[in-house]
Amino acid sequence: MNTNRSLASFMLHKALACYFLSAVFVFGAMLVFFFENQKDIQSEEARMYGSFIARKLQNVSATSLSDLVSHIDKMGGAAQSHEFNIGVATKSTETLWLNKPDAATSQPLREWSENISNVQLGIITVTVSAPLTPVYDAVFSKALSYLAILTAQLFLLWGLFKFLVVRFLRRAIQTLSRDLEVLNLKNPTPLAGDPILSGFSEYRRILVDINRVITSLVLSRNQVEKMNEQLEEKVREKTLSLEEKNETLVKLNQHLSTLANTDSLTQVYNRTRFDLLFRENVAVSQRRQTTLSLLLIDLDDFKKVNDRYGHQIGDQVLKHVAQSLTETLGKNGILARWGGEEFAVLLPYFDEQRARGMAEILRQSIDTAYFEDQKIHITLSVGVAMLLADETGNQLLNRADVALYEAKESGRNRVVIAKHALQKQLTFEDLSDPR
Ligand SMILES: Nc1nc2c(ncn2[C@@H]2O[C@H](COP(=O)(O)OP(=O)(O)OP(=O)(O)O)[C@@H](O)[C@H]2O)c(=O)[nH]1
């Protein structure tokens, strides 16, 4: 079905077709009635004409048919408008029909009169038949005038229907569709429709139905919106609680990571973390061929501190020393508690000389400090070693440790640079045990 068809013009065509069919039926019936009427009139005329001829001929005294014919001729054109038969009964009672209704066998009156000239006339009978041709002509002209009337009516109806009904319908539909177009479901107002058409019950009913649908749409929309809001609220709550949990988890993770990597007493990196950083830095230094130095630091005569002030004070001194070393070192290197009263410092991009300088600064910073209410003074011994070409991390550690040992041996509170070659190679595991 063509969806672009206009409802109004569809109805117009239907209405015109209905009118055409009914008009054809009515006009047909009128034509039949007219035809019958005309036939009756013609028959009556013929009958009257027949009796007129018969009356005239009764008064004529004719001795032969030719004589009769001459009388008929004298009657003039009256005989021309109707077909008529004249029956003449002779004295022998035989009836001769001068003009028969059957066209195939009828003979003109004159020819008969020539042939039967000696016939004695008796009773004369006249029958006149009405020809249908004029009736047909009348009916045809009537039909033509009906057709003209019908055509004119159709055009008139078409114009009127278009002007009144089609315009009306279009207006009804356009008003509705315009109202629906601007309809805002967030803030709906009932459709008012066309003010004139609203007076009709069908139109009002459609409006009521549409408004009912709109109301239920708005209700559903509000419900969906409410559900959406509730859902969003729940999602927000869940997200918040997840974010809180996530934050707690992150903090816990950070705490765990700090615990795993930090020495609990001094809050500097522990041995585990240092081992990892040490291996990474050695690998980077070897790959990029950059300098890397290591300091091994041991507190001098720490046992005496413990013995004199107690283990707890010893702990506090260890904390202060670690804090002081961290501040002095800044971002130049990585400080870790190596174990017991020993610390290690990793110095990326530091060559031997710079490492020695840093070791000296660290040593002096402790040497010039006094801890625990200025009562405790402590010193450091430092072994310095720089990573050599083709040297492993373990070999670097060995050399630094030997240098530290030498610093101790040579009187403590000093910095000793490691020799570049060692006679005895210690393993990494040897150095792992706290001394
Ligand atoms: N308070 C405290 N003392 C510790 C800790 N770890 C190791 N020590 C002590 O550090 C001391 C180390 O003693 P030693 O190995 O003899 O070394 P030292 O006394 O420092 O002598 P040198 O290293 O030769 O100068 C021991 O008394 C250990 O108990 C600790 O965490 N806290």
UniProtKB/TrEMBL annotation:
PANTHER family: DIGUANYLATE CYCLASE DGCM-RELATED (PTHR45138:SF9), REGULATORY COMPONENTS OF SENSORY TRANSDUCTION SYSTEM (PTHR45138). One of its GO terms (molecular function) is diguanylate cyclase activity. Residues 214-262 form a coiled coil. It comes from Marinomonas balearica. The keyword Transmembrane helix applies. Its EC number is 2.7.7.65. Residues 290-420 form the GGDEF domain. It catalyses: 2 GTP = 3',3'-c-di-GMP + 2 diphosphate. Pfam families: GGDEF. This is diguanylate cyclase. It comes from the Bacteria. Keywords: Coiled coil, Membrane, Transmembrane, Transmembrane helix. Its cofactor is Mg(2+). The chain crosses the membrane at residues 12-35, 143-165. NCBIfam families: GGDEF.
